[in-house]
Amino acid sequence: MNTSDLWERVVDNIKSSITPEAYSLWISPLKPLNFENNIFTLEVPNIYFSQWIVNNHQKNIETILSNSHGQPVTLEMKPQQDISSIIKIVGDTPEHIDNNNAPIIQKDQINPKYIFSGFIVGASNRFAHGCAEVVAKNPGKQFNPLFMYSGVGLGKTHLLHAIGNYIKQTTPNLKTLYATCEKFVTDYIESIRFDNTASIKRKYRDLDCLLIDDIQFLVGKEASQEEFFHMFNTLSTSEKQIVIVSDRPPKELEGIEERLISRLEWGIIADIQPPDLETRIAILHKKAEEERLYVPDDVILYIATQVKSNIRQLEGSLLKVTAFSLFTGTPLTVDSAQRILRDVIKPDGSAHITIENIQKVVADDFNIDMRDMKSKRRTDAIAFPRQIAMYLSRTLTDEFSTNAIGNAFGGRDHSTVMHACNKIKEKMNSDPYFNSKINQIIKKIRSME
Ligand code: ADP
Ligand code: MG
Fold first, then answer.
1. Mean pLDDT across the stretch 215-225?
2. Which of 46, 103, 293, 319 has a CB 3.0–4.6 Å from the CB of 288, allowing a cystine?
3. pTM attached to this predicted model
4. CA-CA distance, 387 to 423, in Å (whole number)?
């Protein structure tokens, strides 16, 4: 009997002993690879499948194979895919998984995973995607610089890498560099420290295409801004492509000098909005396909309707439910997804909001130290953001009393919190600019993981 005949026997036998859902979840994805020297090799989508087969069916499969073949047969399994990404999310590494072979992608390299064909286009990102494609096809010719911005987890970094990958593939002779702004700042500081400014100039100015991620990191860093400004001028006067990604539009990069902001506005500016339901469903399908995960449509729909504003969280939820179901051997249903995602999704569909997250976002936005949220300092520059964070803790969470909020802000009392809330509410009512700023902060908090 050949490999596939043998496998057919096994499948016929198992089919009658398990539910159709379990069959399609666990058995259909298995592929017979080879039968040699009484060893039957099965290809499985990932290590969880091997584990599940070992726990549930190995003995049975070996018996069927041995009976059909007339000699003892051993089953071996070959996982198709590195699942370190899933493991990371579930936070549980089975001991026998060897992760040493997984390719290590440096934070400051173009990641081959992020390409245009893996990017789902919908109304929310169509313009940014279109601009990115134009730039990738004609670097330095049109749309220079390209400035893209959005809230977290909406695909900015993905598009930036996609441009880099496309250029590297189609015009490999062009010198392309991807760098986070943080890396730029570190490089700059190092170059000063070692008195070697030539090195940073060589690295960043001798390029055909520069891709800078998270430019908001430059806020408040004057010396680095100066270097950035000159680098920008050098590149753009020689028509080299510059693409810049930010979490807010140029105008709102307070703490970056005006002349640099106006440079950033020279070319084209594209924003990315949170995806609509159809786009979210399409992204989940794509992701499931890429990771070779078998996810029923109703579970995809469930996740897509619950997780709205952050694609990273959308993907994380998908991996979490599939990994959990594979790992525990329970079929993936809307019910189980609901249970598994309980701590990610609140009943109203918004992500779980904590005081700490609020403090982080506000501290970050006002460029103050997180510790100052709890400190006794009363200067306006610190007290004001602290009051905003108190107000947001009061309005965005429902499980904390004003006393508990006061405690989370370095042991302040109930009346201090009330005073902060009233003050911020009043200012929001009287100052539309401030009001919109607070709304932006709220958006950021809601989209946090
Ligand atoms: P940002 O840089 O805006 O915070 P990322 O580019 O890191 O967001 O995206 C977060 C995750 O969501 C990545 O894994 C990315 O591949 C995925 N993603 C974002 N937008 C899309 C999209 N339109 N189609 C497919 N995947 C997307
Ligand atoms: Mg990013």
1. 93
2. 293
3. 0.63
4. 8
Name the DSSP letter for residue 81: S
Cα gap 122→275, rounded to integer Å: 7
Residue 102's pLDDT is 37
Distance CA 181, CA 216 (A): 8
Q: Report the share of the chain in percent with pLDDT over 70.
A: 90
Between CA 17 and CA 23 the distance in angstroms is 9
Confidence (pLDDT) at 66: 94
- What percentage of the chain exceeds 90 in pLDDT? 60
Cα torsion for 203, 205, 210, 216, to the nearest 10°? 90
Tell me if 272 sits within 8 A of 152, measured CB to CB: no
Question: With 0-12 CB in 10 A as exposed, 13-18 as middle and 19+ as buried, what is 245?
Answer: buried
Ligand 1 binding pocket mutation candidate from 114, 178, 180, 312 (most atoms within 8 A of CB): 312
Calpha distance 62→48 (Å, rounded): 19
With tokens 């091997």, the residue in question is 50
Query: Which pair of tokens denotes residue 395?
Result: 């309005």
Which residues surround ligand 1 with Cβ inside 6 Å? 114, 118-120, 125, 150, 152-158, 283, 286, 311-312, 315
pLDDT for 99: 37
The pair phi, psi for residue 34, each rounded to 5°, is: -170, 145
Mutate to test the pocket of ligand 1, among 113, 154, 160, 310 (most ligand atoms within 8 A of CB): 154
Please tell me the distance from the alpha carbon of residue 46 to that of residue 116, in angstroms, as a whole number.
26
Point out the least confidently predicted range of 57-61, 151-155, 164-168: 57-61
Q: How far apart are CA 172 and CA 78, in angstroms?
A: 35
Residues 6+ apart with CB under 8 A from 312: 152, 153, 449
386/215 Cα distance (integer angstroms): 25
In terms of pLDDT, which residue wins out, 95 or 187? 187
